[in-house]
Amino acid sequence: MSISLKPFNTFGIQAQAKQLVHAQSTAQLVNAWHDAHAAGKPVLILGEGSNVLFLEDFSGTVILNRIAGIDIRESDDAWHLHVGAGENWHRLVEQTLVRGIAGLENLALIPGCAGSAPIQNIGAYGVELKHVCEYVDCVELATGAEQRLTAEECRFGYRDSIFKHEYQDRFAIVALGLCLAKVWRPVLTYGDLTRLEPSTVTPHQVFDAVCHMRRTKLPDPTVNGNAGSFFKNPVVSAQQASTLLQHHAGAPHYPQPDGSVKLAAGWLIDRCELKGFCVGGAAVHRQQALVLINQNDATSQDVVALAHHVRQRVGEKFNVWLEPEVRFIGEQGEVSAVETIS
């Protein structure tokens, strides 16, 4: 018997799995993994499916990580949160603000579960998870041994972490620890936030502004399926950025601490006049070019073909080659997104 994965991916792509397991504890998650492993079947551990594209039917077991719980401990200068991997991220942001705990407001309305946040090192409007992460608890699937990694050991990078590399298939995240300073310092470096007054702004005002920006610029996945930002913002050398800016003086660019420069993928795609461009049922969103949407019963092949076209157009015009932020899932598990759309 096959089970539809359409309700479990925000792209709304039709795909099937052989088995679906809701894991509400570490033991349930490990046991489900062992059962599939013993049967020789591949395993995919999924949060809310907000950052995946199913390329085809999955031939094994999909485990939905639903480990819940939020514990809050107070120290002299900070709040320390221990959050189950299955907690919804945006609800976590809301709950902290209700309790008078600030620091996550820039990350409001990012879809998905808390356990997915470290994998991508989620970020928005000048804040990344690594800025507030204290530790990540994971379990070694083969042995059931639990392990706590410090934020430094997670090797966070731009939309990257150890969980995308050597920990990808061997470990599952079960909880994360966040440290939110009691002395709040607003981050107002992007978008509408730059118009707020740093000396008087409140965390709730930042939260409201972030929610407004996301709701007006990003499509609702319940209306048009999507996985949020489809491509990473490219990071290029200072020399390449300088060359690009000589020809496109208005291009948004953000110098990085290591001397490289981050560019805005959405701006690059927009300058290729691709907003609204369609392949089959997939389209580039008309308000935010960084988002590819399931406009009309798109297949995964439609999305892949559209992503390929976008990448080629941007590469040919700017000599900048975009890489997907979304994880591509094949019959046996994750595959290279860059190779798939190249």
Explain the layout of strands and helices:
Blueprint: E1 3-4, E2 16-23, H1 26-38, E3 43-46, E4 52-54, E5 58-65, E6 70-74, E7 78-84, H2 89-98, H3 117-120, E8 123-124, E9 127-128, E10 133-140, E11 146-150, E12 171-181, H4 203-217, E13 225-229, E14 235-236, H5 238-247, E15 253-255, E16 261-263, H6 265-271, E17 278-279, E18 282-284, E19 291-294, H7 300-318, E20 327-329, E21 334-335, H8 337-341
Describe what this molecule looks like in 3D.
The mean pLDDT is 96. It is built from eight helices and 21 strands. The strands form six sheets. The protein has a five-stranded antiparallel β-sheet with strand order 6-7-12-10-11, with no helix packed on it. Helices cover 24% and strands 27% of the residues. With 342 residues, the chain is of the alpha+beta class. The protein starts with a strand and ends with a helix. The radius of gyration is 20 Å and the shape is globular. A hairpin with a 5-residue loop joins strand 10 (133-140) and strand 11 (146-150).
